From TrEMBL:
Residues 270-279 have a biased composition (Polar residues). The keyword Hydrolase applies. This is Endonuclease. Residues 31-136 form the Endonuclease YhcR N-terminal domain. Residues 238-285 are annotated as: Disordered. GO terms for molecular function: endonuclease activity. Residues 1-21 form the signal peptide. It holds the Pfam family Endonuclease_1. The lineage of its organism: Bacteria, Bacillati, Bacillota, Bacilli, Bacillales. Keywords: Endonuclease, Hydrolase, Nuclease, Signal. It comes from the Bacteria. The keyword Glycoprotein does not apply.
Length: 377
């Protein structure tokens, strides 16, 4: 079988490109993912698409905790989650250090172009014997969203403060929950994808019975990632009950975090492995650093104080902010956003909040590149 694929790959360089008005499959005019999936005959063509994760089986693509650098899944949209719309790419050893997700988790969502044999990989439409691969320089820092022509229509194409204003106007008006209703909402937004009876706790990563909530030791409670004392908004409807920054956390770990700003360093937490804290800052585990950053970016855009009684929240580059409506440390949050890209859990959470509860989205999950446009120094 390996010999047959090799012969097809070698012989295919003399074949004419596929007859298509949309592209020839050449390096200058590559096939899109759908075209490549429909041409699984072992011939060699160029293909382009957005990196959506690492395939580990015919129907499973993971977006975090990558075990190796051997494979990629790509699709026509960076937000694609259905593996039937993805093509699997086998990465040769000479490209793994640059294009493998274990070594480069921040390339998730970026667009690449490659040349290889169109043939099954993991018993799924694939590309093997890759001879050339590179990032698409014109789009590698941009993502697309299914909501660009509708929900984000007035924001697409804007940058800087104009983008921030447009996004605020889009996400500002939404359904506001009571604080008591947050309990049940979190049971759905943070449900363990492998156990529908449990939720995943933010800082510990522990999967726990979704009804084991309250104030006792080892219960989970409602963590305000933007500490509610930073702006003194408490648990009032609005900032105090906004699901986009409320997460289930272990009671004692939540207490340890308190109202500290976010930054690197400190002593390891005895119960929450991978979390660190000192007198004025909290560092969450690596797997949720980006999640934390994107929740805070959302809050800084959503709450601008333009409605009577509503707080104006801002990010700054300090810790120990106390009761003022500021959170930090911005430079660290920007690093976390890059080091821990958006994953499937975040995307699903965003969808559940939008569809079932608040009717608004966190734009920095849908468009991670907007963070740099608005918050970079």
């Amino acid at each position: 079988m390996v010999l047959l694929v090799l012969i097809l790959c070698i012989g295919s360089f003399s074949l004419s490109p596929p007859i298509s008005a949309e592209g020839t499959g050449s390096w200058s005019s590559p096939l899109d993912v759908n075209q490549a999936m429909n041409l699984q005959d072992g011939s060699s063509y160029s293909v382009e698409g957005y990196i959506t994760g690492k395939p580990i089986s015919t129907t499973t693509v993971i977006t975090s905790n990558y075990p190796d650098d051997y494979a990629l899944a790509i699709a026509n949209s960076s937000q694609e989650q259905n593996t039937s719309n993805m093509i699997y790419v086998q990465i040769p050893s000479n490209y793994r250090s640059e294009f493998g997700l274990k070594s480069n988790p921040d390339i998730l969502g970026k667009k690449i172009k490659l040349t290889g044999c169109l043939t099954d990989y993991f018993s799924h439409a694939g590309v093997k014997c890759v001879s050339e691969i590179e990032f698409d320089s014109t789009t590698s820092t941009s993502t697309t969203s299914p909501f660009d022509s509708t929900y984000y229509l007035t924001a697409v194409g804007k940058t800087g403060n104009s983008l921030k204003i447009a996004l605020h106007d889009i996400i500002d008006d939404h359904v506001e929950l009571s604080y008591s209703n947050v309990w049940d909402a979190l049971r759905h937004t943070d449900e363990d994808p492998n156990n529908s009876n449990n939720v995943i706790l933010l800082y510990t990563g522990r999967s726990q019975d979704k009804y084991q909530n309250g104030g006792d030791i080892d219960d989970w409670n409602r963590e305000h990632v933007w500490a509610k004392s930073h702006g003194d908004f408490g648990t009032s409807m609005g900032a105090g009950t906004d699901l986009h920054h409320l997460r289930p956390t272990d009671v004692t770990v939540n207490s340890s975090r308190g109202n500290k700003d976010f930054d690197n360093g400190g002593s390891p937490h005895s119960e929450a492995n991978g979390n660190y804290s000192d007198s004025d800052s909290w560092e969450p585990r690596d797997e949720v650093k980006g999640d934390v950053a994107r929740m805070l970016f959302y809050m800084a855009v959503r709450y601008e104080g333009d409605v009577t009684g509503e707080v104006d929240l801002e990010l700054n580059d300090f810790v120990n902010n106390g009761s003022v409506p500021f959170m930090g440390k911005l430079s660290t949050l920007l690093e976390w956003h890059e080091s821990d890209p958006v994953d499937a859990f975040e995307r699903n959470r965003n969808d559940v909040i939008y569809t079932n509860y608040q009717g608004n989205r966190n734009p920095f999950i849908d468009h991670p590149e907007w963070v740099e446009s608005i918050f970079s120094f």
